[in-house]
Amino acid sequence: RKEVEQDPGPFNVPEGATVAFNCTYSNSASQSFFWYRQDCRKEPKLLMSVYSSGNEDGRFTAQLNRASQYISLLIRDSKLSDSATYLCIAGTASKLTFGTGTRLQVTL
Amino acid sequence: EAGVTQFPSHSVIEKGQTVTLRCDPISGHDNLYWYRRVMGKEIKFLLHFVKESKQDESGMPNNRFLAERTGGTYSTLKVQPAELEDSGVYFCASSQGLGGRGSPLHFGNGTRLTVT
């Protein structure tokens, strides 16, 4: 079983739709959680950190459920520019582990 | 503020040759990480430096890989001798605090290594 698991997708959604991604992690000692976005042939870029209380940044909402060991990302009012791969990351101390990423394609 | 820079952006070498990748972290970031993505797989951790010290090198695949960070500034990752399975994208990242303690990592553009 992978340390961090994500549905690879692709998720194909129309513009304006709401889409949610889940990610599960196996190491209960994980302390840090992030969502990164990666465009084709580019480096991963931080989308948002994930806090225990949940956090929101514009159209993006991240949630953490420690009991069930999963992280979620909700994107509201999807834009074409949201098309990318979304990487879930969970970490302990110095080591952050990536999921394989979930591919999102937003269409007209 | 300059971001994390990596050099070269692409490298094509033959099996058995040596390649050295370089990473310049964001100035002031003590934490430097190397990751790599092999085709079709997830990005995997290689190692982590705090200043010039290796904090965790549990992800280094074998002794053909050598990472250094002399002086605690830039880092190099040398692959010698390169094998076909070493092909992939090598990312470097830096952070001010520990990534595992909530400090986000800032990634460089990556070095795309192709071993033929």
Characterization of this structure:
The complex is a heterodimer of chains A (108) and B (116). Chain A is mostly beta strands and 108 residues long. Chain A contains no helices and eleven strands. In chain A, a hairpin with a 2-residue loop joins β9 and β10 (95-98). With 116 residues, chain B is an all-beta fold. In chain B, 0% of the residues lie in helices and 48% in strands. Chain B contains no helices and eleven strands. Chain B has strands at 5-7, 10-13, 19-24, 31-37, 43-50, 53-56, 65-68, 75-79, 88-95, 106-107, 111-115. In chain B, β5 (43-50) and β6 form a beta hairpin. The model of chain B has no long low-confidence stretch (mean pLDDT 92). At the A-B interface, β5, β9 and β10 of A face β4, β5 and β10 of B.
Defining traits:
heterodimer; A: 108 residues; mainly beta; six-stranded mixed sheet; five-stranded antiparallel sheet; B: 116 residues; seven-stranded mixed sheet; four-stranded antiparallel sheet; 11 strands
Number of helices of chain A: 0
- Protein chains sharing the most extensive interface: A-B, 23 and 28 residues
Number of strands of chain B: 11
Helix content of chain B: under 10%
Mean pLDDT of chain B: 92
* Number of helices, counting only DSSP H or I runs of 4 residues or more of chain B: 0
The radius of gyration over CA of chain B amounts to: 13 Å
Order of helices and strands of chain A: EEEEEEEEEEE
- Rg of chain A, rounded, reads 13 Å
Tell me the span between the first and last alpha carbons of chain B.
37 Å
Shape of chain B: globular
Poorly predicted ranges of chain A? none
Our estimate of the beta-strand percent of chain B is: over 45%
Structural class of chain B: mainly beta
